[in-house]
TrEMBL record:
Annotated stretches, region: Disordered: 52-73
The protein's name in its UniProt record: Cupin domain-containing protein
Domain Cupin type-2: 116-174
Native source species: Pseudoduganella flava
CDD domains attached to this UniProt entry: cupin_BLL6423-like
Pfam families: Cupin_2
Protein origin, superkingdom: Bacteria
Upper lineage: Bacteria, Pseudomonadati, Pseudomonadota, Betaproteobacteria, Burkholderiales
């Protein structure tokens, strides 16, 4: 199963303040992780501050692919997940390589007793919406089945996305930079 290409429309302003279409077409950055063939990051947009600059600046998605949102910023992307069986045989090596590819090796939290080899955590609030296919949200103590229309509000917890369906899955993620509550930060540091 392959998913349709993402169509993106970006608006802006002309010199007189009139609303215009700045770009209309396919995404300029679609990145397949070499360590996880079939996992694609479709970079839609990002902001690099709060409040977000409302300008006619350059497309922020054409730089290096990053796992989490920019500091004080946001990121929106689609992710296509291949079935788990495509990489579970040598998962530990693949996960280290994959998180290296997206410039966030520190996010990987997998240990010998982890429930899934893709366990990771970022100091962010992520809204994950299943668009097509099925996925399982894996937490330290539970699994939650997800289907099209499921929305996960992921608040910096240790988690993985397991695709046990045998078919690709597409999710939309909106990532918002965050900061742990001091009590949660202390509990995480003690683990």
């Amino acid at each position: 199963m392959s998913f349709p290409a993402i169509h993106r429309v970006v608006t802006g302003h002309d010199a007189d303040g009139k609303a215009i279409v700045a770009s209309d077409g396919p995404l300029p950055t679609v990145f397949e992780l070499q360590a996880l063939p079939g996992m694609f990051f479709h970079e839609v947009w990002e902001t690099a501050g709060t409040p977000a600059p409302v300008d006619n600046g350059a497309d922020p998605t054409t730089g290096p692919t990053m796992h989490g949102p920019p500091k004080h910023g946001t990121r929106i992307r689609f992710v296509d997940f291949p079935p788990d069986e495509a990489y579970l045989a040598d998962a530990e090596q693949r996960m280290k390589a994959a998180f290296g590819e997206v410039n966030n090796s520190a996010a990987l939290t997998t240990k010998d007793d982890s429930p899934h080899p893709m366990m990771h955590r970022t100091e962010a609030v992520d809204y994950g919406i299943v668009i097509a296919g099925e996925l399982t949200l894996v937490l330290d103590d539970s699994d939650v089945p997800l289907r099209p229309g499921s929305v996960v509000i992921q608040r910096g917890t240790n988690h993985a996305w397991a695709n046990r369906s045998g078919k690709p899955c597409r999710m939309l993620f909106i990532q918002v930079d965050g900061q742990y509550d001091p009590a949660i930060a202390a509990a995480l540091a003690a683990r």
